[in-house]
Please model this.
Amino acid sequence: MKKMHRLLDEIGRAETIAVLSHVPPDGDALGSMLAFVEALAVLGKPQARAFSAEVPGTYSFMPGIDRLESGWEGDAFDLAIIVDCADARLTGAFLPLYRGAKRTASLDHHMCNAGNGDLSFIDTTASSAAQVVLAFLGAARVELTKSMATNLYVGVSTDTGNFCFSNTNGRTFRDAAVLIEAGADHQTAVTQLYKRRSLIKTRLIGRAIQNLELLEGGRVALMVMDDPDFEALGTTELDFEGVVDYARDIEGVEVAALIRKIREGRYRVSLRSKFTADVNAVAQRLGGGGHERASGCSVGGTLQEARERLLFEIDKELRP
Ligand SMILES: [Mn+2]
Model:
């Protein structure tokens, strides 16, 4: 709390303030930035600016999203604040802005945050950076507006897979309750974030499901997408996000994999597991990595070779 007040002092002294996060931004990065920059106006700094080189279309509904600026020039900022960012280098094109600022501060929830900034608030018990921002707003006695609440709610919701991931805890729900009571537009957020999908992506999912096969007595589900499949659909890289989950969610399946061609002789593999199999180990043995329940790698060779190597490695993680 004492440290939070030191940040308030820094804000008070600064004439020019920039708020930054990682690129490309996710819901937590955007929600944390937007709520913070709005709060800075309440704290007497309406000239504070927030930056993001791009904004994925999914988040275009977020209140105040248009005030994010994609570039800057001019003098060094008195204070640069980064949110949801374990490493300042993740700010991409804004790294010179951050490095050039006279003072820096960081608000984050990542375990691996090395403590960027002159002042840093790293709270790994928070499921999202939005909750670290919420704690700061509480310490600063900034009254939550409806738009701040909605933006922070988007951060909490997206970083916890809408309250499903293992980082969801009691505090997640307590903070979410505070945001809902402050007027967070939870219905709009949920509809925009989770009930919206392009026709192309919907068809891609259909195609992937059509090509799905069950192996190992139904414990492994494999989706293979060869290029004619998705080229015909006009998909982009982003459309593949989450497709493999449809395979994982089949009853009895422990490991799911989506193999798709990225170029001749090279296949991209997305891996998911449900309860016990360590797909991080699978991916690492194939030169990739990730988490125990979600990982990825790329495998060379013909489709047949890639498939065999992958299944061989998956097999080792299947407990009898
Ligand atoms: Mn986050």
